Amino acid sequence: MKPSNLSPASWPRWVRAFVFGAVFGVIGYGVGAWLARIAPGGFGPSDMDLRWSDGLAMLVGLALVAGSLWALYVSLNPDRLGRMYSLDGPASPDETALARFQALVMGFSGVILTLPVVFSLAGVNPLLGLSAIGLLLVLHTVMNVRVYRQADELLRRAVIEAAAVTFFGGQLVLFLWAAAERLGAAPAITAWDIYAVLMALYLGCSVWISVRRGLA
């Protein structure tokens, strides 16, 4: 059955990428407005000690959760899931189960990314919070390994390419910032700042590569 012209599966890739960016742009605006409301003076010094990287991490985390919910919605219809992954027909039960597990892992990634900020704002004991995050990271790693082992060659290539582009792109950005910091042209940044930027870069690379390979 030919997909309707109103179906996202029938839209050109650049249109889907634009819609994706617009949706998460709105989400980002909402997160930024919320942070600005709860933190006097914006992202500057405040009683809540919020940084620009906290807002970026929350934005990326919410984007991952939103993408996870969208993937779960698509998986409810085998025909729609088959069109999303450019299959010859409807997705099989095994392919549907794998897609849902991948969506779960993606949403889990977003939740873990927001936990340091949430725990910090909630005043959770640092040792307790770090222990909880460490245990969740172990579970998350096991889930990621399972996804990679069950994925097809196309998805594996996309993951490797996204990681490679993020590594080299992040290395370039980090060097430029470090050089500017050493020359006194930029303020010092923390490990959390660096990680938030890398995760945002990785999300952008993943979306770009997925669109190019017809996976989104």
Quickly list its features:
single chain; 216 residues; mainly alpha; 7 helices; globular; disordered N terminus
Write a structural description.
The chain is mainly α. Helices cover 76% and strands 0% of the residues. α2 runs parallel beside α7. It is globular, with a radius of gyration of 19 Å. The protein starts with 12 loop residues before the first helix and ends with a helix.
Break the fold down into its secondary structure elements and pairings.
Elements: H1 13-38, H2 52-75, H3 78-84, H4 93-122, H5 126-150, H6 153-182, H7 191-212
Helix pairs in contact: 1-2, 1-7, 2-4, 2-7, 4-5, 6-7
Helix percent reads over 70%
Assign the structural class, choosing from mainly alpha, mainly beta, alpha/beta, alpha+beta, or little secondary structure: mainly alpha
Alpha carbon gyration radius: 19 Å
Order of helices and strands: HHHHHHH
Based on DSSP secondary structure assignment, what is the total number of beta strands?
Answer: 0
Structure at a glance:
By secondary structure, the protein is mostly helical. Helices cover 76% and strands 0% of the residues.
